[in-house]
Protein 1
Amino acid sequence: MDLYRYFHPHHNPRLISEPVRALELSELEQAATELRMAIARAQVRSKNASLGLKSEENYEEILVALDFAIASIHQISEEHPGDEPEVLEQMIDERSDAPGWENWTRLLRQRIELLTHGIQQDVDSNHDVIETEKTGTNDDE
């Protein structure tokens, strides 16, 4: 996954004036988590077959720094108000032609469909409640 091009204004001028989207924050958190797992595995490999490099001791410090980065990104993600379906559609438009994003596009389209149908169901449910209150009847009784 080539995330860099979707976060750097040089590759995507839209980023100069647009706020970070919730899905982008989730992607950053996932990428940081995957990097942490890769570094942890490199640390194990280094211990098993050391090259005798002095810098091999730095793995633990790198892992602590990555834990901080992951926790910080997670906190920012939790505070984000979320993405509207239109914003998610915009992301699909930006990435749909890029190689390797086919599954991502398919999954995001499914998410948009669920969001859209979920919002419509909530509206329908609220409408039913309002109509019941207006008429004073309840079909469940």
Protein 2
Amino acid sequence: MRRKKWIRPVYKKTQVFAFFDEKMAMKWLFLSLLIVGCAHHAPQRDPSSVVTQFSAWGPYLRHEFGNIADLFTDPTFLQMPWKISSEIAADGKELPPNKVQEVGVACADKNLYPTHPFQDTKEYIFSVAANYDYTKLPGTSEACITSTTSKKFCLRAQTANVVIVSDTYEDSCGNMYRGYWVKHYRSGGNKYQTEDNMGTLVAKGRTIYEKTNSEFAGEVYSGYTYPTPVSEFAFLGKLLPRDALKIQTSLQNSVRMGYVRQGKIFISPKNLK
């Protein structure tokens, strides 16, 4: 599923993780890899779920999180029930939970690595949203966008969003998976209020950077990749039938565009300069 097009504001590199200084990012990356390779870690659990027992994503989320609204600040002021998001086209019907072929990691190393550096295989599986009732929300709430001068009443409020995101990964042994995770965030308001920025739904293990002097506002390019612990995923599944060709195409594009693969890590040509 693809996110519907909408105009995003431009964010400075210092605003979100995906946009911090590239040289600093690379130092952090290599330090992290050194720690992963040398330090002794307690065994990490594989993602464990009962996802295949459910025929719809709503009941699965309630099983995993209880009242989903409790993931957000001031949940009692959210207008229920949850509705399919108008911003992200993903109603969960194409891939219901009981159609996921769940698997565990077949490798001693419990880190997963992106199969390529791009966002091409990322999919939004399910997405719901709920508006805050601004007529009842306190003006002092973090979810209030605009309030009266006294802060007693809220005049405009944010939207709560829950999205199941998925992308393709491989382990150190060369086995490939589709990893799934749940992302929740508030949207609406200025850049200091909203939790919805250009890095919010970036696929795990991948980075993006804002293009400088770009003709189009908010245009980005893919940066380097890094390992993600298996425990950060809700569950893992087999690749979907369409994934193999997409991965192959993305790998070919990465070579054509000058990306270099060091072990399981992709380095962008801009990082190599």
